[in-house]
Amino acid sequence: MWVRVILLFGAAWFVQALLGYFQVKDYQRVTFELSKKGKLVVGAKRGRLSRGAILAMAVDEDGRILDCKYMKGISVLARFKGLDGLVGRNMFDESVELFLDEPLKKAYKAALSRFAHIKEKGGRSEEEA
After folding, report:
1. Exposed / middle / buried, residue 30 (Cβ in 10 Å: 0-12, 13-18, 19+)
2. What is the dihedral sign for C-alpha 90, 92, 96, 101?
């Protein structure tokens, strides 16, 4: 009986690791695609037992959103989806938050502060400075 329980937990752990791998590959693919379109700005709201969210945007020098994708959920089954309501808007426009639910608002605010920090450093990230 205990062997079956251990095998069941082992199989569940393996499936979770496999799905996590595909989720990371999806994140890498999306961020690479967005980085080719403009400056990549990513914000995240981490959720331990609640829904988390990641918002990835390609923006130009003035903060105009060229493309935007998001991922939210509580499991490794979450994948990125397009957020066309923000494309063409300026990320400093306060009406942008009207399109977002609570986890995405927090991820958006994190992305906004990161973009402002990068712009303050003269277009360089912390690693390059």
Report:
1. buried
2. positive
30: phi then psi, degrees, rounded to nearest 5? -65, -45
- The CATH topology of domain 2-120 is Sufe protein. Chain: A (3.90.1010)
> What is the pTM (predicted TM-score) of this model?
0.80
Query: What is the rounded distance in angstroms from the CA atom of residue 84 to the CA atom of residue 129?
Result: 33
Report the relative pairing of strands 65-73 and 39-45 from DSSP bridges: unpaired
| Triad 109, 68, 95: Cα angle to 5° | 50
Q: For residue range 5-39, list pLDDT tens digits in order.
A: 999 999 999 999 999 999 999 999 999 999 999 88
